[in-house]
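Journal club prep — side note

Before the paper discussion, L.F. wants everyone to see what a predicted structure for a comparable chain looks like in token form. Sequence:
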Amino acid sequence: MDFAHIYPMDAVFDTPEDVPEEVATNKRYAGNDGYTVSEVAEKVKKDFGSIDVLVHSLANGPEVTKPLLETSRKGYLAALSASSYSYVSMLQRFGPLMNPGGAAISLTYLASERVIPGYGGGMSSAKAALESDTKVLAYEAGRKYKVRVNTIS
């Protein structure tokens, strides 16, 4: 399989205005422009016009190694933002680019249903939210964009 292009994306940021100055000037982002969800969607639209498949394969929780009882609000919300809301954001922006009959898929984890010691920091909650959001997104995006929305573990 050949890839036409790889687009770096930080799915925590929906638009350029959402990127804090300390992130924008971080060496991690040096040489990369247009890495927010909306900017990457625009690049894909420009380069391909439309897409058939959207894959959400990301999870990030800065406190994932902490037990839930030791997780800060900031760490918990960061896990939800990166691991769950990012799928909503991606479908908001990539949904209009998807061909009818296309498919959006995300990856979840068993910790959404069972206790997995060591998978903390709000990540189990984030994966449960991702699964719940997937059901709503399947209903909404299915009607609006005529695409299928699912998650697998």
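L.F.'s comment for the group: The domain at 50-152 is CATH 3.40.50.720 (Rossmann fold). Keep this in mind when we get to the figures.
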